[in-house]
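Review form for a predicted model. The reviewer records the input and the model, then writes brief findings.
Reviewer: anonymous (R2)
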Amino acid sequence: MVREYNVAILGATGAVGRRMIDQLAKSTIPVKSVKLLASSRSAGTVLKFRDQDLVVEETTPESFDGVDLVLSSAGGAVSKKFLPEAVKRGAVCVDNTSAFRMEPDVPLVVPEVNPDALKEHHGIIANPNCSTIQMVMALEPIRRKFGLKQIIVSTYQAASGAGQAAIEELKKETQDYLDGKDMQADAKILPTKGDKKHYPLAFNLLPQIDVLEDSGYSHEEWKMIHETKKIMLNDMNAKDIKVTATCVRVPVPIAHGESVYFTVEDESATTQDIMAAVADFPGVVLEDDIKHQIYPQPINAAGKRETFVGRIRPDYENPGAFNMWIVADNLLKGAAWNTVENAEYLVKMNLI
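Model under review:
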């Protein structure tokens, strides 16, 4: 008899939480029951799972009694408060916040890339940063076949990375611009809500995602550096692959873009070799036909689970170096789908 699972979704009313409900409904996980959890402010909201109307409940430690699996995207402070309580009560948690990503005993997992790390979990699995996920999806097949020496990434990150409110702010600023009004009055969230100053994103670029640290890097840039190393090399401080990042918020609602420059150990690798490796990797779609102007675009990636890769080309000045362009829906593969997919793998591997 197939085992069925009692599932709780923490942060169910947020942009990612609502997508988790949808992705869970479409997943292969045998679901016995679903409990939707959020703050007291959102309690009472009615959301649909498949053909069922479910009332969102206020989260308490007791909410996790009898729960087998928790899918979480309610903010780092909420995860730190409630997920250990869920684990105490016997649940396995997949968390989409940054709360546990750098904890040495918490696996940081992209299922297509490092599924075996799931075997090391102690009740909590961390979902990587959205930008990291799509980059390692594109680079892992290359690393496996040709080795990787260095990664230099510049991101073009959508407003939705800062939540639904940031999308609404972008829309309002855009209308203000078109109406000849001052956009600054509506800038309350970006580049990051917790910082001192806020700037319009509409018709603008913001080279700051998360807080800027004394090192000169933003917290988002450090996330990409350390998470990439932890996922690929199981060591956030590994020196075997050099990684650096520049993260920029762009006026796109959904789906991040990334320009990635990388060098491989095997300098005999050709552009065609790189393309073939990428095209064969599960969850990755190669869109690279320059004769017909085919390349990944956020407007086409939004709403899709796959990671799209194109514009693969060599650096003719440096043997073994290449450029590529990566696009993925940051709310799906970058968040909700990767979370649910991790849960699917946990079920398949009998780790719950």
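Findings: DSSP finds eight helices and 14 strands in the chain.
Further findings: Helices lie at 15-25, 76-88, 130-146, 164-178, 219-233, 271-279, 298-301, 332-348.
Recommendation: see findings above.
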